[in-house]
């Protein structure tokens, strides 16, 4: 399944510049060279990311959790004050003003499609199960303006 990646214009430009620099440098000629392999993998990763990117467009303000939305959640396994607000997006989104949660992470994938008030369950990499309730989901641009 191909997922759209939400990027700010700044992050999109940074990734394009990184890709251009990697292409200009070229990988090592040796097929078994670890540095050349990492170089080629990063080029493929950036090409894939940029091909799936939606740049600078806020998702609809419909309260549904999806990439590009700022989510506030409550972890119901903890106390009533155990809330967190983060941008559902990739680290490449380049936001320093908010924590970022990847849509591919256990938490992010559990929240995709959730509406305020819905509880979702996810399993952390350590095997522990968590319950989280979506409190709000607003487009990043609306969060930023608020």
Automatic annotation (TrEMBL):
Top-level taxon of the source organism: Bacteria
Keyword entries, A-Z: Elongation factor, Protein biosynthesis
GO function terms (MF aspect): DNA binding; RNA polymerase binding; translation elongation factor activity
Keyword Protein biosynthesis (UniProt): yes
Protein biosynthesis in keyword set: yes
Domain Transcription elongation factor GreA/GreB C-terminal: 66-135
One GO biological process term: regulation of DNA-templated transcription elongation
Record-given protein name: Transcription elongation factor GreAB
């Amino acid at each position: 399944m191909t997922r759209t990646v939400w990027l700010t214009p700044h992050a999109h430009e940074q990734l394009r510049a990184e890709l251009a620099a990697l292409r200009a440098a070229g990988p090592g000629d040796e097929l078994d060279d670890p540095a050349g392999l990492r170089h080629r993998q990063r080029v493929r990763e950036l090409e894939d990311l940029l091909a799936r990117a939606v740049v600078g467009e806020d998702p609809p303000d419909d309260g549904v959790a999806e990439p590009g939305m700022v989510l506030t959640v409550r972890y119901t396994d903890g106390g009533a004050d155990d809330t967190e607000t983060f941008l559902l997006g990739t680290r490449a989104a380049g936001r320093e003003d908010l924590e970022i949660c990847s849509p591919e992470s256990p938490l992010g994938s559990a929240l995709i499609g959730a509406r305020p008030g819905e509880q979702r369950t996810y399993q952390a990499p350590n095997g522990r199960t968590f319950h989280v309730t979506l409190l709000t989901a607003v487009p990043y641009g609306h969060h930023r303006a608020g």
